[in-house]
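Progress note, project year one: complex with nicotinamide-adenine-dinucleotide.
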Amino acid sequence: MKEFDVVVIGGGPGGYVAAIRAAQLGLSTACVERWIGEDGNPALGGTCLNVGCIPSKALLDSSHHVSFLRDEAKQHGINSSGVTIDVHKMIKRKSGIVQTLTQGIAGLFKKNKIEWLQGSGKLTADKQIEITPLDNEKEPFRVLAKNIIIATGSVPFNIPPAPVDNELIVDSTGALNFTDVPRKLGIIGAGVIGLELGSVWSRLGSEVVIFEALDDFLPSVDRQIAASAEKILRKQGLDIKLGTRVTGTGSNNREVTVTFEENNEKEQLSFNKLIVAVGRKPNTDRLGVEESGLELDDRGYITVDDHCQTNLENVYAVGDVVRGPMLAHKASEEGVAVAERIAGKPGHMNYNTIPWVIYTWPEISWVGKTEQTLKQEGIPFRSGSFPFLASGRARALGTTEGMVKVLSDQKTDRILGVHILGPAASELISEAVVTMEFEGSAEDLARTIHAHPTLTEAVHEAALAVDDRAIHF
Ligand code: FAD
Ligand code: NAD
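Model obtained:
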């Protein structure tokens, strides 16, 4: 039987990054992965590369060009009449990007001498791994592992009123592969996926209605930023119905009818497609949880300590399958930290500086605490904000909606949170993450020279505003 220092189960951003780091540290490493890509071949990269971060951003970028040409080009003196959309080509481009990147991971595995065991991995009672090959003809086999890292990710939640049929009712994966633009598109859930995929198809011409059970829009986002974002997204055409309960769906061949309760009234709307995006659940399907004695919490996540150690010795778990935000970069960093600890190094993970991004336009990003959590926790703070309206670069771009907000400790001035709604917010947030990682203050940011004219000046000015000395506002 083959033996490895490390066997990783799952080849998404948690698993493949853990495998590469382990191999870099000289540990003999294998990764078990069962994903079959769109082309019918085994694929690495997990949810993120195959049906998550990457394909959704490819479509967000393509559709952003469409909305630029349709709604903004004129302001720049560009006549863009006659623009047409080739959905087939757009989807093909997206699939090509996915394929290039997933094959790239296979190349990295080869380069790092990581063995890719193609099949479904299961923990056994004696803490080894049994692999059922993708090729059904082949017999299951076992490998020995000194250390096991579980990175089996997550899968979409289903809700009884809207069972996914992959025809009219789809999950996020189906919504990345529509063959034409649905005239009327319903979405259940105004979370990250609902807003991102709603933006894609709305920009391409769908009339989008989003049903959200909660009364508040993006409750974990800074309230001021969430309120501005809601206003902008509604103006862009997303009909967001807050406090709405979907009670049932019915479909004929062409349309799906959604029955919902709004203000205690029962109502119905029909759509050409309906996306269900109500969150994701940890994936421990066929993992041998009971057989191995692996402990799960009451919501189905694998129980781990601060170092991603499970209740079983030398068995670790990272990424979406454990507590914490379901984000690719969180999964990868946990993977690196665990691989380093296995190699006897002080692997480290700072959960206080994980950035969040919602890739609408303008983008929404944040790191650290919001004003509301600081108030709840009784932490005195100072706040400084700066609108993109007053940024020369944002004016030149023609995108002046949104703002940057910096929150710092009232006594020490240490930055506690940064919140951005604006162009390239996904990139701008990194400066805040680095400053927080170094335990920097608003004054540190304020005294740092920022190139002119750039959008980063808005971060600089918000830091200056903490001390009431913003120059341009
Ligand atoms: P996964 O990526 O889910 O990978 C788990 C892998 O394990 C899968 O490949 C699966 O096949 C494999 N597996 C499971 N069980 C077994 C088994 N028993 N044997 C063998 N293999 C197994 N996050 C961001 O940070 N930024 C974004 O922009 C972003 N956009 C997203 C858009 C969409 C539409 C979706 C759905 C998600 C998005 N996410 C985004 C979330 C991100 O994809 C996840 O947080 C990330 O993929 C989690 O990584 P992971 O390695 O934990 O799990
Ligand atoms: P989410 O938790 O962000 O949003 C789900 C939304 O659905 C919530 O607002 C919830 O209140 C609502 N909801 C739940 N049940 C409902 C019901 N029965 N009727 C109406 N509304 C209901 O989850 P998601 O959008 O599915 O995304 C899943 C995960 O994927 C997220 O946690 C996120 O971490 C990750 N993701 C990240 C990115 C990114 O980083 N840009 C992009 C996409 C997905």
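The mean pLDDT is 97.
Residues 87-111 form the longest helix (25 residues).
No further modelling is planned for this target in the current period.
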